[in-house]
Write a structure and sequence with these properties.
With 162 residues, the chain is α/β, with parallel strands linked by helices. The chain is 27% helix and 23% strand. Strands 3-6-9-12-14-15 form a 6-stranded mixed sheet. Helix 2 packs antiparallel against helix 3. The protein is globular, with a radius of gyration of 16 Å. The termini are far apart.
Length: 162
């Protein structure tokens, strides 16, 4: 990777927000809570992006524009992509089945302004439309939207398209 490409990458606020989250999460997993709080607060101050250091998010997290993003202590698979102004978190302080926050599968896209709250599950290959409010479980291969969110499109697997 040449220097220009590296500088372009480092200049992207979304990339920096992901790196600060990864640093905060690493510190949390290594019982360095003060450091995890420092990295998390730095992310809030620099980018307006509040991602819990306790969140378990797989590889390939992409943040397009970090301003206004709030992600609680959720679990998410690989290749989560989020737009600006999204919220992922708990609906109430009461726990259901031992958890409060959403579980999110692989290859999920949560578009700008969307809200995903409560002890729900989003399947794999799900797209959440802009400004949708997801409060119920969502299966695999779906596009959901609306308030509250409902199924808009059922995706077909790549093999069935050919």
């Amino acid at each position: 990777m040449n220097v220009i490409r590296l500088l372009k990458l480092v200049m992207k606020p979304g990339w920096r927000a992901v790196m600060l989250f990864r640093a905060a999460n690493w510190a949390y997993r290594h019982q360095l809570e003060i450091l995890s709080v420092l990295f998390s607060n730095l992310n809030i101050a620099l980018h307006g992006c509040d991602i819990s250091w306790k969140a378990k998010i797989g590889k390939g997290l992409t943040i397009y524009h970090p301003v206004g993003i709030v992600i609680g202590a959720c679990e998410a698979g690989d290749n989560l992509r989020v737009g600006t102004g999204i919220t992922i978190g708990n609906r109430e302080k009461h726990q259901f089945d031992g958890r409060e926050n959403p579980r999110i599968g692989n290859n999920v896209v949560i578009n700008a302004g969307a809200v995903v709250i409560g002890p729900i599950a989003l399947g794999n290959n799900v797209t959440v439309a802009p400004n949708a409010v997801v409060i119920d479980d969502v299966g695999n291969e779906l596009v959901v939207g609306g308030i509250p969110a409902r199924q808009l499109i059922r995706r077909q697997m790549e093999q069935t398209r050919k």
